[in-house]
Amino acid sequence: MPSGSRSALPHPASRAGAAPSGGQLVALPVERDDAELLRRLQRGDPWAKAMLFERYGALVERIARRILGTERHTTFADVVHDAFVSAYSSVHQVSDAAALTSWMRSVAVHTACKSIRQRKARSWLSFLSPEDLPELPARGADAELREAHDRTYRLLESFPLDERVAFALRYIEGMELTEAAAAGGVSLATIKRRIARAEARFVSAARRDPVLAAWIEEGARWTP
């Protein structure tokens, strides 16, 4: 390499590429701490944007799926895309690099909620067919489990949005109360109230459902 020249920073998602001589270039892993990642995100560095997606893409999609479930007309790739567009444009609001994970959870929650609101706003234009339903995340699950999954989310679709989100974060995603509060952008007291209301609503409705009633009775948490 000529003196004074700089090597190009490899894209974090790349693992190999063709060398100018026809050989194979293997990109070495690049480790950056969260503080540097945040600084470079706030500068609009393409490397930092790619790294943010690499670190948090799966988390954002998982949270979106937990909240949206079997929402019709939901393309999860679009929700994830929208979440990162929002993250890139609002990253200047983050002042503490240690809060990146919590912040990305909140971005995921906000984007999933926005997707639900948009769907409801245009629902009168929808003409749905079975082909419109998204693929269930639990591939290969037995018929009973898939049916319980569908019925759970049909119940959650009737919930007030704040309760639906609280229930999904706590009981489906399995977040601690403090994590769920941060992700929802509310106080600990508020998330506790929402979870309590959502739990009561869910148990009451599930016990009237012929499929979910059995799951409720078998589960130690909701067994009377």
From TrEMBL:
Chain ranges passing through the membrane: none
Keywords for the protein's UniProt record, in alphabetical order: DNA-binding, Sigma factor, Transcription, Transcription regulation
A molecular function GO annotation: DNA binding
SUPFAM superfamilies, per database record: Sigma2 domain of RNA polymerase sigma factors, Sigma3 and sigma4 domains of RNA polymerase sigma factors
InterPro entries tied to this protein: RNA_pol_sigma-70-like, RNA_pol_sigma-70_dom, RNA_pol_sigma70_r2, RNA_pol_sigma70_r4_t2, RNA_pol_sigma_r2, RNA_pol_sigma_r3/r4-like, WH-like_DNA-bd_sf
Gene3D superfamilies reported for this sequence: 1.10.1740.10, Winged helix-like DNA-binding domain superfamily/Winged helix DNA-binding domain
Keyword check for DNA-binding: yes
Regions of compositional bias (Low complexity) in chain numbering: 12-22
RNA polymerase sigma factor 70 region 4 type domain: residues covered: 152-201
Domain of life: Bacteria
Domain RNA polymerase sigma-70 region: 52-120
Identification of the protein by name: ECF-family RNA polymerase sigma factor
